[in-house]
Amino acid sequence: MSQAVDLTRDLLARRSVTPADEGCQELIARRLADIGFVIEHLPFGSVTNLWARRGGSGPVFCFAGHTDVVPTGPLEEWRSDPFVPAERDGVLYGRGAADMKSGLAAMVTAVEEFVVAYPAHSGSIAFLVTSDEEGPSVDGTRRVAEVLRSRGEHIDWCLVGEPSSEVSAGDTIKVGRRGSLSGRLTVHGIQGHIAYPQLAENPVHTLAPALAELVGRKWDAGTEHFQPTSFQVSNLAAGTGAPNVIPGELKVRFNLRYSPVQTLSKLKATVEEILHRHGVRYTLEWYVSGEPFYTAPGVLSGAVAAAVAEVTGVPPKLSTGGGTSDGRFIAPLGAQVVELGVVNASIHKVNECVRVADIDALQRMYVNVLRRLLVDTHPSERR
Ligand SMILES: [Zn+2]
After folding, report:
1. Contact at 8 Å (CB) between 272 and 214?
2. Which of 90, 138, 147, 283 is found 20 to 30 A from 243 (Cα to Cα)?
3. Which range has the worst mean pLDDT, 56-60, 179-183, 191-195, 379-383?
4. How confident is the model at residue 49 (pLDDT cuts 50, 70, 90)?
């Protein structure tokens, strides 16, 4: 068994459901300390965070990831205990196998191999690991990024080990993510008898044309690297339950996934203008779960794409699809951010799994990335 697979199994055996870490970071920290990393544990509330750095000079290359996992879901639907790693037909099963304990193991073992081969590499290598990526994501990467910002510690390149691949390891890397803006809308009406609508105000009826416009609207055309912005209703409720009563209130929850061609203020203003124009009386609370980020093709994405192709023979597709990731907190530090990890088909599902061969392939890709950025590149080409 390779070191990367061995470490993946060690991490999988720990029941680190958000925000628990169950010693995963201690294990990673010990191994990094052994190869010259300076270790900092940065706990906030119930969240465990690790910042580790080897080297004092720039450029700084940072691996980022999370030790927490989502809950198992119905145990009876798992073919084996989700916290006892089990290999069947070359596939390793366990909660976190793909998202993203195999990624963490590949990073750690890649760095171990790299520093033996290139002990005098240029720049620095860092790790930013949290136990709150799957949870509220308040005391995790966001807080560590604040600490780094407050002491002026810079990250040039960040590789997030989230499972970015679709069918085979390295077929897709993420070079950005869309932003996510949610709204909690209450439409106010006047409750009344359904036979006397002139004495009531039906919030379902006042919202309907506004909602049709919001749903049918072409917000933008997207960009070469981003899908167009989309508006989706997730919840809608009105009615007292009685068939002869006009409801006095309607509640809607909706979400906008948006590309960097939009801004938060523009999106909010557009939604509010549409409601207003249709005469909707409302209260609206906004929630921002992440602003978009995008890393234009450059040194990092070029090195990662080439590192992947060295292993698979095929350059990866560059994507910005999927949900948000902790890259949204690291990109604002001025870092180029790329995500490269194993296949994401089973993440958050029962019987989460990863192909064993993909763990080793990912580990080789990570070694190649380090070599391309911290050994091969001429300093003047690094930005
Ligand atoms: Zn993840």
Report:
1. no
2. 283
3. 379-383
4. very high
133 given a catalytic annotation: yes
Query: How far apart are the C-alpha atoms of 262 and 145, rounded to whole Å?
Result: 24
Structure tokens at 307: 């590192």
- Residue 310: how many other CB atoms lie within 10 Å: 16
Q: Give the whole-angstrom CA distance, residue 296 versus residue 110.
A: 26
- Ligand 1 center to 279 CA (angstroms): 42
Residue of higher predicted confidence among 371 and 382: 371
Round the average pLDDT of the chain to a whole number and report it. 95
Q: Within a 13 Å sphere around the CA of 214, how many CA atoms are in the beta-carbon half?
A: 26
First to last CA, the chain: 38
Three-state secondary-structure class, residue 367: helix
Mean pLDDT along residues 190-206: 97
CA distance 16 to 99: 12
Does the annotation mark 68 as catalytic?
Answer: yes
Say what the pLDDT of residue 323 is: 78
Cα(106) to ligand 1 centroid in Å equals 14
